[in-house]
Amino acid sequence: MKPDLVRRLRAKISRRPTKTGCRLWRGAASESRVTVYGKIQEGARGSRVWRVHRLVLLLATAHVDVPRDPDEPIEQWLRRANRFYRDQGLQAAHQCDNSLCCEVGPLHLIWESQSANIKRQRERERRRREAQSLAVGSADTAQSAVA
Question: Which of 19, 100, 102, 126 stands the most exposed, by the fewest C-beta atoms within 10 Å?
Fold first, then answer.
């Protein structure tokens, strides 16, 4: 990873957070099955393309779990750190449900197992459905009270 990548990465992340505290990716994006994720190319054409949220989380946290040898090129260290987390069964997970969020922290980006991430998503979806049904029920009640 060249310093140019870090400079380009920082230039494309919003400096001001949203009301929810998210700092958003404003660069290129790619769609997965259901979600749009930020992406950035490591170097020249044909080189590695990183998902921005994973790269941001690696840069912010990997030095704790995967120390970098001073002589090791940063590209090599990032790939090694990426393998470490993948081998641990961990992925970069958005706690804030904003796939373009680049804010690292317990309310935004964390390392999480896929099963925990899916469980959390299902729970949020269940709560969302319950809230919608309560809202519909209270609107029906209010409408019948007016009539």
Answer: 19
Helical residues (DSSP H) of 13-113, grouped into ranges: 52-65, 74-87
On the 0-12 / 13-18 / 19+ scale of CB atoms within 10 A, 109 is: buried
Which CB contacts under 8 angstroms, 24+ apart, belong to 5-14? 5/40, 5/42, 5/43, 6/59, 8/40, 9/40, 9/52, 9/55, 9/56, 12/38, 12/40, 12/52, 13/52, 13/56, 13/102
Condensed to tens digits (0 to 9), the pLDDT of residues 116-145 reads 999 988 988 888 888 888 877 665 555 555
Q: Which residue shows structure tokens 């912010």? A: 60
Length of the chain equals: 147
